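Hello forum,

I keep getting stuck at the same step: I have a sequence, I want structure tokens, and every attempt I make locally crashes halfway through. Rather than fight my setup again tonight, could one of you with a working pipeline run this one for me? It's a single chain of 214 residues.
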Amino acid sequence: MSIESWFELSGIIVAVLGGGIVGGYKIAKAHGKKLISKNFPSNEFWSLHTRIHEILTELRLKTDCARAQLVQFHNTGYFLDGISMKKMSLTHESLEAGVTSEMAGARLNTKTDILLTLVVDSMVLMMNDEPHLHITEQMKPCHMKNLLHSNAVVAFSFLPVKGSGGQVVGYTMIHWCSLNKMDEIEESTMMEAMMEARDEIEIELSIEQRQEAK
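Reply #2:
Ran it on my machine without issues. Output:
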């Protein structure tokens, strides 16, 4: 083969390789865009969860409490017998100025990946679906009482939150960290505010569920 032929063949190989690289890059780029658009939170996601935080803030202001929270149930990992680990984690929180958070990473005593088997007594109380005022000191010794004490909670109220199918998917909870404020609580007003906030949160979560199903 002559030198001229070698040059021609080399040029063809380079052109083919170059075209393949460019084409592959374009495909990867387009695929990447699809992945980003699919997995990255949409504008609806930000609006919905901003609304949940606003609901909790309104609840905190109405009840003059230190913390207003949404805690959600989830599965993470499995036991050796194959049964999924049922857990709960704090997902949304509104705080009074100067009050420490119970979010993951904020401090050691947080509500993250807590096994529901550790807080069964408290969950049974919550399932009564009545947002009465509960005094931390009056609780029987349990994991939840220890967690409340460690976060300076002197009184609390909580209600179950249900999904669109009626299944309990978590709960909304408010904390008071001051004995003086606890003495000023009007339980009937507090209970009404709790039920209104819970109903609004359930609506927002049902919207998210419908969006995820699309």
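The chain has a mean pLDDT of 83. If your local run keeps crashing, start a new thread with the error log.
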